[in-house]
Specification:
Bound molecules: 1,6-di-O-phosphono-beta-D-glucopyranose, magnesium ion
Strand order of the largest sheet: 3-2-1-4-5-6
Shape: globular
Order of helices and strands: EHHHHHEHEHEHEE
Organism: Dyella japonica A8
Radius of gyration: 17 Å
GO molecular function: beta-phosphoglucomutase activity; carbohydrate binding; glycosyltransferase activity; hydrolase activity, hydrolyzing O-glycosyl compounds; magnesium ion binding
Helix content: 40-55%
Distance between the termini: 14 Å
Largest sheet: 6 strands, parallel
Number of helices: 8
Number of strands: 6
GO biological process, one term: carbohydrate metabolic process
Keywords: Magnesium, Metal-binding
Family: Belongs to the HAD-like hydrolase superfamily. CbbY/CbbZ/Gph/YieH family.
Amino acid sequence: PLQAVIFDLDGVIADTAVVHRAAWERLAREIGAPFDEDIAARMKGVDRRGSLDILLERAPRAYGEQEKCELEARKNGYYVERIESFGPDQLLPGARDAVESVRAAGLRIGLASASRNAPLLLERLGIAPLFDYIVDAARIERSKPDPEIFLAAAAGLGVPPEACLGVEDAAAGVDSIHAAGMVAIGMGRREDLGEADIVLPGLIALRIADFVDNKNG
Ligand code: B16
Ligand code: MG
C-alpha cells in the first residue's frame, strides 16, 4: 500500500522551471552558445553541472573546470536574483492543497529536488514545514535520471521505494522515479512525459484518494 508521496519542486510545486530556463538562456546568449527547445527540454530537471554540460555541447569553444564553475555561479546569480522576490503567490495552482491532502490521507511527504536553492525557495513559498523529509541536493552524486535522489528521499522517510509515488514535470525525473521502483505521476503534457504512468496537467488535478488502497472497496 501507498505510504508516501515524493514531490519534485521546480515545475511541480513552484513556477521556477521557466526561471531556470531564462537564466540558462541568458548565459547562452552571453557566451554565444545556441539555445533551442530541444536543449531546454534536455536540461529540465537535470542538476546544475549536468545542465551546463548540455549547454556547452554546442558552445563555440571548450571551457576548463574553473571557467565552468564561474559560468555556473553566473547562472545561479541570475536565478537567485529572481527567486529572492518570490512569495506564496508563486506556488503553482493547487500545490499547497495537494501537499496538505497527502498529509490528510495519512501519508508521508518528501521532497526530491535537484536544486541547491530548494531550502531558500521553500522558505519563500511558505511551505517548508509541510515536508517530513527534504533531500539535501548537495549530497546527491548522480543527477536525475539516476534513481539516487528518489531513493534517498524514500530512505529519509523510512519507507520502502515501492510504497512511494513520485511526482515530476521533467522526463529525466520520471526516469529517475521509475529507476527507483516507484510509480511516476507526470505534471504537464503527455508528449513531454511519455514514460509517466499517469499524466495530469498540474497538481490542481491530483486526487490522492485515487491512489490510496481502499480497504472497503
Ligand atoms: P540549482 P527540480 C532542478 O530542480 C531544476 O529542474 C533544474 O532545472 C535545475 O538545473 C536543478 O534543479 C538544479 O538547480 O542550480 O538551483 O541547484 O526540478 O529537481 O526541483
Ligand atoms: Mg522539476
